[in-house]
UniProtKB/TrEMBL annotation, chain A:
The entry's keywords: Membrane, Transmembrane, Transmembrane helix
FecR protein domain: residues covered: 99-188
Domain of life (superkingdom): Bacteria
Signal peptide: none
Protein name: FecR family protein
Boundaries of every Protein FecR C-terminal domain copy: 231-296
Organism, scientific name: Cellulophaga baltica
GO molecular function: sigma factor antagonist activity
Regions that span the bilayer: 74-93
InterPro entries assigned: FecR (IPR006860), FecR_C (IPR032508), Ferrdict_sens_TM (IPR012373)
Automatic annotation (TrEMBL), chain B:
Coiled coil segments of this chain: none
Key words, A-Z: Sigma factor, Transcription, Transcription regulation
CDD domains: Sigma70_r4
Protein name per its UniProtKB record: RNA polymerase sigma-70 factor, ECF subfamily
Species of the source: Cellulophaga baltica
Length: 302, 169
């Protein structure tokens, strides 16, 4: 008899001879009965339709789970965690300060060592309060007046040049094609195009359109704009008008006049009408003011 | 996942799989562990697992996936619990057999049930899948993940020990 002949028998795989022999054995009757009765046994009820309905319901409620496995969600979470971490690190570690003034606005900033900076209109200043006492360094774009407390070297970096002092009062103007440093007290060291020169109290250093211009000493002990006046000495009119635009937040149309005319004088930063008069009357110019637009015309020589 | 039509994630494919296999899976678990309610819950859970993993399971592998998952799930539920095989009540069919014969039949059935519950799980589930569900050896071998020869061996041993138990050897 072959291996597992009982299994073969149930599967009708026995040879005729084998089957004959098996049928003659004593156990055959028992096996036959077991086979018959076992296949008539009943299993518990299983309602496929009912089970399927339940399955459908369960699948709907587990849909959320499927979505969770979505890799883009995981990516979003990782991204969110990174952003959070960077933002946190930025706030903890960033000690850089940025001060900016709008047109027609000035601002007084007190630095960590009690040095004072007055920022004129439309100017930006950046500095780091970290280790300020060791390294007094700031960058400036625009115009500012400094009252520097005594201490370590104090550096003002501008796009035109670098100013270094130990403790003085000075004014820096860094406008397009216009760079001016005026020292009111102590000694200021100005580095312009790799040349350093010392500026004693009561002197100015002026660069117009990349040319160093000899200039008069200031007559005051602080810049005039601190007292809401803008003063110019032999400065081309276009720089004067640019300052007027900054102080009053206006746009000036000056195409019909010669803006290279040198201007010496002062205009107030409080009243645009009198400021315009201060500039226009001595230069034989008429002006019209509409809203925040100023149009200048040369007076006809009639 | 070869073509969209053959994707288990497709409602139709999945529904077909459920309708053709759920009852057998249920019976399989029942033969093995003898607990109707647990078997039912595990069947449901196993098919939900198939749905959740529908992208990863090829349709031709879905059936054995369900059996494997169901078995594992059941083993998790079961662990130390010892479940005795108990069979469903026999149906009271109207027969013209003599009372003596009926009594004898009834006693035989009881003996058979007792002998079945004493069988190892594997032999019992294999034997009953063949006898009751009419599954071919090859099919049982596939879902159990063994060779046809191993199934034949189980059938042979199951039949042998059933007879020995019943005949009181």
């Amino acid at each position: 008899m072959q291996e597992n002949y009982l299994a073969k028998w149930l599967n009708n795989e026995l040879t005729d001879a084998e089957l004959e022999a098996f049928k003659k054995s004593d156990e055959y009757a028992s096996y036959k009965k077991i086979a018959t009765v076992s296949s008539s046994l009943e299993t518990p009820e299983f309602d496929i339709e009912k089970a399927f309905a339940e399955n459908k319901l369960a699948r709907k409620t587990t849909k959320g789970k499927v979505v969770k496995l979505n890799p883009s969600k995981i990516f979003t979470r990782i991204a969110a965690a990174i952003v959070l971490f960077i933002a946190g690190a930025y706030f903890f570690m960033n000690t850089n300060e940025h001060v900016e003034t709008a047109l027609a606005q000035t601002e007084l900033i007190t630095l960590p060592d009690a040095s004072e900076v007055v920022l004129n209109a439309d100017s930006q200043m950046d500095y780091s309060i970290k280790n300020w006492d060791q390294k007094r360094h700031l960058t400036l774009n625009g115009e500012a007046y400094f009252k520097v407390a005594k201490g370590k070297k104090f550096t003002v970096e501008t796009s035109s040049g670098t100013i270094q002092v130990l403790g003085t009062q000075f004014n820096v103007t860094n406008r397009p094609n216009y760079f001016k440093v005026t020292c009111f007290e102590g000694l200021v060291s100005v580095t312009y195009k790799n040349k350093t020169l010392k500026l004693p109290a009561g002197t100015s250093f002026l660069v117009l359109n990349d040319k160093i211009i000899p200039t008069e000493a200031p007559k005051t002990d602080k810049p005039s704009w601190i007292t809401n006046e803008s003063t110019f000495t032999s400065i081309p009119l276009n720089f004067v008008l640019a300052e007027l635009e900054r102080q009053y937040n206006v746009t000036i149309s000056s195409s019909s006049i010669n803006t290279n005319t040198l201007f010496t004088g002062t205009f107030t930063n409080k009243n645009i009408d009198s400021a315009l008069k201060s500039i226009c009357v001595p230069n034989n110019i008429t002006y019209t003011l509409e809203g925040n637009k100023v149009i200048l015309h040369a007076k006809n020589a009639e | 996942m070869d073509t969209p039509k053959q994707n288990v994630c497709e409602e139709q494919v999945y529904n077909e799989l459920f309708k053709t296999n759920s009852k057998t899976v249920f019976n399989y678990l029942y033969y093995k562990y003898g607990n109707e309610e647990k078997a039912y819950d595990v069947v449901q859970e196993a098919f939900i697992k198939l749905w959740e993993n529908c992208k990863k399971v090829a349709p031709e592998k879905a059936k054995s996936f369900v059996y494997t998952v169901a078995n594992n799930l059941y083993l998790n539920v079961l662990k130390a619990e010892k479940v005795r095989f108990k069979h469903a009540k026999e149906t009271l069919e109207v027969t013209h057999e003599s009372p003596e014969f009926l009594l004898e039949e009834k006693q035989f059935k009881l003996k058979l049930e007792q002998a079945l519950s004493d069988l190892p799980e594997n032999q019992r589930s294999t034997f009953l899948l063949n006898r009751i569900d009419g599954k071919k050896y090859k099919e049982i071998a596939e879902l159990e993940g063994v060779s046809v020869k191993a199934i034949e061996k189980r059938m042979h041993l199951a039949l042998k020990s059933l007879r020995e138990k019943i005949d009181g050897i």
